[in-house]
Specification:
Blueprint: H1 3-9, E1 13-17, H2 26-37, E2 42-46, E3 52-53, E4 56-57, E5 71-74, H3 81-90, E6 95-98, H4 108-123, E7 127-129, E8 135-138, E9 145-147, E10 159-163, H5 166-174, H6 176-179, E11 185-188, H7 197-206, E12 212-217, H8 223-231, E13 239-243, H9 248-257, H10 265-274, E14 278-279, H11 283-295, E15 303-308, H12 311-323, E16 327-328, H13 333-340, E17 353-354, H14 361-372, E18 379-385, H15 392-399, E19 408-413, H16 418-425, H17 438-467, E20 480-481, H18 484-493, E21 502-504, E22 519-524, E23 537-541, H19 544-560, E24 567-572, E25 576-587, E26 591-598, H20 603-606, E27 609-613, H21 618-627, H22 629-634, H23 645-661, E28 665-676, E29 681-683, E30 686-690
Parallel strand pairs: 1-2, 1-5, 5-6, 6-7, 10-11, 10-12, 12-13, 13-14, 15-16, 15-17, 15-18, 18-19
Antiparallel strand pairs: 3-4, 8-9, 8-11, 20-30, 21-24, 22-23, 22-24, 25-26, 25-28, 26-27, 28-29, 28-30
Helix pairs in contact: 3-4, 11-17, 14-15
Bound molecules: adenosine-5'-diphosphate and magnesium ion.
Magnesium ion binds next to loops.
Length: 691
């Protein structure tokens, strides 16, 4: 990994262009934060009017500086930004943090300047964070860089925190004393004109100080670039994403906010899930989970024990288990017997274990020990609500002394003074959560990550084989919906089972011979997308007479709406058991997306579909089948024989390949793919849009 990105976090020298002697100005506050946090490198302020700022010798111009500049931080007003960048680049500076705002986010004029700057940065082989951002932090002892204007003193932890929003980043920094969030690196990326989430995803893999990656994102610069490192197994650390813009309203706000276009949220949701990226719902869940990864061993399973001294919070904890797909563990008799010796007779030795308000540090520790030894328990949630007579500190500290490989996650609901005491006096400094629902989220995210990690191993080979083209044919089709012949050709090449088709001109219908009855006749016009809406699909035709009558009827229907039948499509009539939909489209950010679900005329009403990135592994296809109603039905319910599932999976994969290999396909659908009474499978209606 090149040093340009590393230098944002580990510079030996920083130059602050626009350092100021005026209190409350950004140029002053920034330098003050850098200085008070205890930056270990050389500080080189630039200000044409000052001799010194905050005791540091000031340079009149950038050119006056003879020392090597590892990182240049720009806070000058926007009209001076471009000149400063020119000078820095000429000097050979490779890492530039542009805090100043007033670029793409203000409209066209700002965007032009921003684009010009980015081009210059690229040409010089330099990298830039920002503009319109809040800075970077590295809490590592021998660096100690807080290059933001938030004068907090964040503590070291093994998390990297990337925030697209400066304000949100600042809010998190301002909350640190209360939330006890710790991190190694913080980066506010602003407009993401150059450095973005994808760069940090790669960089943080190489940095041993980072074990967990957290992102607050309003948009993905290039979703496909973000997911590919997961597919190719280049991401070895948990990645948590808080993606704003979940609701339609939220999406509008997000796109005007940093001038970025958001991906459709369903796609984001499906793909993050597919590639083991943990999507969290709020900041709380994000940092709690990061604390989880940092401080606890991963649970082996989802059987949870709850220990408490009060009813209400335990009930909330148990409710949250269900929401997160966790189970309340069933204790062994041995555990219950051991618990009886410690737990108050009026308490409970079942799960949740209730120690009643009298439960003290000793009981809590012993009970946690006993429960952690139970083979039916994978993780413990230990809740303490402060009663009058028991002090929380010893309880909390004591529980974290229990020797076990299983995570014990604590919730404390103490008097307000506790938190300062705990922070000051705790030897272990383990996280203590505030809400009874928090631990379930953390455990469930950790389990999701572990499960996905196993699945991700499958991708690499699959992906490489997917990139080697299977069909490798250059189709020379015109833009628009492909004709029936073209559809037949391409679908056939990929092994999609296209039903036998025959195209007949209206005038040739009468002289038609040797037909296979029963058959289906469909009226085709380049202007008609949904044939059955015009009553242009006639099923189960038994003889020539019926055929001609149906054709006539279709022509009449078309005429009513001023359409003309270009051709009739004749197919064998399939005695149908099930109708399936396989479709796909190219998402502007995340690339090829594949859809599977219930097919037929009523797809929009039935709404039984699921989507994935077309870079599918076997487990994804299984999951698509398992999460849809039609999938479950096809696998056989109520003693029914399953259909040929392997063949179905092959067709899904073939469709995905067709989409991946043919960049011109913007969308397609096989609707329906019919499963016949004899279990044979036929695509009777395929639509492909070529761009
Ligand atoms: P469109 O989607 O343009 O309305 P389709 O070709 O999908 O037209 O036909 C509509 C419906 O007719 C299908 O959902 C299916 O139920 C039925 N159908 C179409 N072709 C056949 C066929 N060859 N055998 C049996 N049923 C068919
Ligand atoms: Mg159809």
């Amino acid at each position: 990994m090149s040093n340009e990105i590393k230098n944002f976090f580990y510079p030996k020298s920083i130059c602050v262009v626009g350092a100021s002697t005026k209190e409350k100005s950004i140029g002053y506050e920034l330098l003050k934060t850098i200085s008070t946090f205890g930056y270990q490198g050389m500080i080189l302020p630039v200000n044409p009017k000052a001799e010194s700022v905050l005791g540091y010798k000031c340079y009149k111009t950038i050119d006056e500086i003879n020392d090597q500049i590892d990182l240049a931080i720009i806070v000058v007003p926007k009209q001076f930004v471009e000149d400063s960048i020119d000078t820095l680049l000429t000097k050979g500076v490779k890492s530039i943090l542009l805090i100043t705002a007033g670029f793409k986010e203000i409209g066209k004029a700002g965007e032009e300047v921003e684009n010009r700057i980015v081009q210059k940065i690229k040409d010089a082989g330099a990298r830039m964070v920002g503009p319109n951002c809040m800075g970077v932090i590295n809490t590592i002892e021998d660096i100690k860089l807080n290059a933001t204007f938030v004068a907090e003193k964040p503590e070291f932890g093994n998390t990297g925190f990337f925030s697209q929003s400066g304000a949100l980043g600042a809010a998190v920094l301002n909350s640190l004393r209360e939330t006890h969030i710790k991190f190694a690196h913080f980066i506010s990326a602003g407009n993401k004109a150059d450095i973005n989430e994808n760069d940090l995803l790669k960089y943080w893999q190489t940095d041993d100080n980072i074990k967990t990656l957290t992102y607050y994102l309003e948009s993905f610069v290039n979703g496909e670039e973000f997911i590919i490192p997961f597919i190719t197994n280049e991401v070895e650390k948990p990645v948590l994403v808080l993606k704003a813009g979940k609701t339609a309203g939220g999406m509008k706000a997000a796109s005007s906010h940093t001038g970025a276009l958001s991906s459709k949220d369903k796609v984001v949701d499906a793909l993050l899930n597919q590639f083991g990226i943990i999507r969290v719902n709020d900041l709380n869940e994000m940092f709690n989970t990061a604390k989880g990864f940092e401080n606890f061993k991963s649970p082996k399973g989802n059987r949870i024990a709850v220990i408490t001294n009060a009813g209400g919070p335990a009930i909330l904890a148990v409710d949250s288990l269900e929401k997160e797909n966790l189970e309340l563990a069933e204790f062994t008799e041995e555990t219950k017997n051991k618990l009886r010796e410690v737990v108050h007779p009026e308490g409970s030795v079942n799960n949740p274990v209730d120690l009643l308000p009298g439960g003290n540090a000793e009981t809590y520790k012993r009970v946690n020990e006993i429960v952690s030894e139970d083979e039916n328990v994978d993780a413990i949630i230990s809740i303490f609500v402060e009663p009058v007579m028991v002090q929380p500190f010893d309880v909390v500290e004591g529980i974290y002394d229990v020797k076990t490989d299983k995570p014990i996650i604590q919730v404390d609901m103490p008097l307000p003074e506790f938190w300062d005491t705990y922070k000051r006096d705790s030897k272990k400094q383990m996280p203590v959560f505030r809400n009874p629902e928090d631990p379930a989220e953390v455990i469930s995210n950790m389990l999701f990550y572990n499960k996905s990690k196993k699945k991700l191993i499958e991708y690499k080979d699959q992906y490489e084989s997917m990139l080697k083209c299977k069909v490798c044919k250059k189709y020379e089709f015109e833009k628009g919906f492909l004709t029936q012949e073209q559809v037949n050709e391409i679908a056939d090449d990929y092994g999609i089972p296209v039903i036998k088709n025959k195209l007949v001109k209206p005038e040739a219908l009468k002289s038609l011979n040797g037909e296979f009855y029963p058959l289906v006749i469909k009226g085709i016009s380049k202007d008609v997308v949904h044939k059955s809406e015009l009553n242009a699909v006639k099923l189960d035709i038994r003889n020539k007479e019926e055929l001609l009558a149906s054709a006539e009827e279709i022509e009449e229907n078309f005429t009513k709406y001023d359409f003309k039948v270009d051709e009739f499509l004749i197919q064998p009539f399939i005695k149908t058991k099930h109708e399936i939909l396989i479709g796909g489209f190219r998402d502007p950010s995340f690339g090829p997306i594949i859809m599977f679900g219930t097919g037929g005329k009523y797809v929009e009403v039935v709404c039984d579909t699921t989507i994935r990135s077309a870079y599918l592994c076997g487990a994804d296809i299984d999951e698509m089948i398992d999460t849809t109603v039609i999938g479950k039905i096809l696998k056989g319910v109520r003693g029914e024989k399953p259909i040929d599932m392997d063949y179905l999976k092959k067709i899904i994969l073939a469709s995905a390949l067709m989409l991946i290999e043919n960049k011109n396909i913007s969308e397609f659908d096989l609707n329906p793919l019919i499963v016949a009474q004899d279990d044979s499978i036929h695509a009777v209606d395929i639509r492909i849009k070529w761009e």
